[in-house]
Amino acid sequence: MKTKRIKNITRYSYKAGQPFNGYRLAVSRNRKAFIKYFSDRKYGSAEEALKAALACKEEYLAKLAAETVTES
Fold it and tell me: What is the DSSP letter of 8?
């Protein structure tokens, strides 16, 4: 599956039988990194894994924005 480039999300796709096929979400702010993996196997398909990664990214960025407003 070929997807367009999405900031902070990387596709890992190996030959069948390899330990991981899916997406990695990596966001870093102020020297703190948030990394989470979304396996095709766990989510049932590459499309569902991508949807989960995008949802998690939006949730995490919203949390960061709320913390930034609170700290100001």
Answer: T
CB-CB contact of 21 with 13 (8 Å): yes
Cα separation, 2 vs 19, whole angstroms? 20
Residue 40: pLDDT band by 50, 70, 90 thresholds? very high
CB distance 7 to 48 below 8 Å: no
Helices H / strands E in the chain, number of each: 2, 3
How far is C-alpha 5 from the geometric centre of its chain's CA atoms? 12
Is the per-residue pLDDT at 63 higher than 60?
A: yes
For the chain, the first-to-last Cα distance in angstroms comes to 43
